[in-house]
Amino acid sequence: MSPASKPAVLPRVRIVSPAAGSANNGNAHTAARWERFLVPVSTCDIALGWSGEPIDVLIALHARRSATSIARFRFACPDKPIALVLTGTDLYGDLARREGDASARHSLECASAVVVLHEGGAATLPPAVRDKTRVIVQSATAVVARAGAAMGGFVAVGHLRDEKDPLTLMRAACAAGPGIVVTHIGAALDDALGAEAKRTMAACPNYRWLGALPHGAARRRIASAAALVHPSRLEGGANVVIEAVRSGVPVLASRIDGNVGLLGAGYDGYFPVGDSAALAALLRRFEAEPAFAEHLRAQCAAREPLFRPAVERAAVRTLLADLVGRMAIGVKAIEW
Question: d(Cα 113, Cα 43) in Å, to the nearest integer?
């Protein structure tokens, strides 16, 4: 049978994510969302790695943590495409250090296409890598507060680990003054930070740590908050910021590339990374000045269309279509 007469089939896609679905973190949510987008146009699954299963396209999250699967697939299937989705740990950690990480750099070399999750994500990459890099901004559904739900207060959603800078959040909450309450949602991935959260909560009525919550419960908390506080030191494009904006909730965010890439350079709700005094002042201003709060709300509303699922779905399917277009006849073209 000639190549032209072979029956077309849906492309087989493996999404490799370093986090299982039960992890309830950004990588797991991204993998699950992309799988939903691709299932109608491919045979798609999610796994922690690739070990020789018959697939046509590999989509891998995280250059270092997926490096073994990427290298194995490139060696075994040199003519098949790989899309590498770079996380914040990749861009501002493993690939940013002067010596870099050899496995992460090798993943970049192996990739047919590289994906960054915010507008400024490619700036730190070598020019040769930028040429094969595209931006796919993540999305979220629009969860709104339930009728009768108590409104107000500040919420932060992020596991307790150094990259999320929970200590700055705790110190700012305690320094913000009477009447300001910050509710913090997230698992203690670092025991010392978990212990500090408990000490802070006992000593400071402004700070409430709830621990981990299911994703749906966390989203409802965000939707009913006056604002989301996001003090991260390092982000590739945080899902939680997008979720807040889609819920009509403004964001008080550290001025890092991952936040600026989502909210825009002209956004007025930033504070210097790690500066608890500046965050405390921002909390007080938001609480005391309704016009300022409304201004941030309007700025976020202007960004909201970027974060709609239809936009991300089209970009993810275009990525797959471009990758499949490089393959031999016999794989069905992507249509939607």
Answer: 20
pLDDT digits (tens, 9 = 90+) for 174-187: 999 999 999 999 99
Task: For residue 281, report the phi and psi dihedrals to the nearest 5 degrees.
Answer: -65, -40
DSSP letters of 141-164?
----PPTT----SEEEE--BSGGG
- Closest CA relative to residue 242, chosen from 102, 156, 139: 139
C-beta of residue 215 within 8 angstroms of C-beta of residue 239:
no
- Gap between the Cα atoms of 86 and 114, Å rounded: 7
6: pLDDT strictly greater than 70: no
Give the separation between CA 311 and CA 211, rounded to whole angstroms. 32
Contact 194, 160 (CB under 8 A): yes
Digit-coded pLDDT (tens) for 37-80: 999 999 999 999 999 999 999 999 999 999 999 999 999 999 99
Under 8 Å between Cβ of 51 and 199: no
Q: Please name the amino acid found at residue 27.
A: N
Task: For residue 12, give the amino acid letter.
Answer: R
Pick the closest to residue 120 from 137, 100, 145 (CA basis): 137
For 63, counting Cβ atoms within 10 Å of its Cβ (0-12 exposed, 13-18 middle, 19+ buried), the class is buried
User: What angle (nearest 5°) sits at the alpha carbon of residue 217, between those of residues 39 and 184?
Assistant: 120
Closest by CA to 10, choosing from 54, 76, 47, 48, is 54
Amino acid present at 306: L
Is the Cα torsion angle 45, 50, 51, 57 positive or negative in sign?
positive
Residue 242 class from Cβ within 10 Å (0-12 exposed, 13-18 middle, 19+ buried)? buried
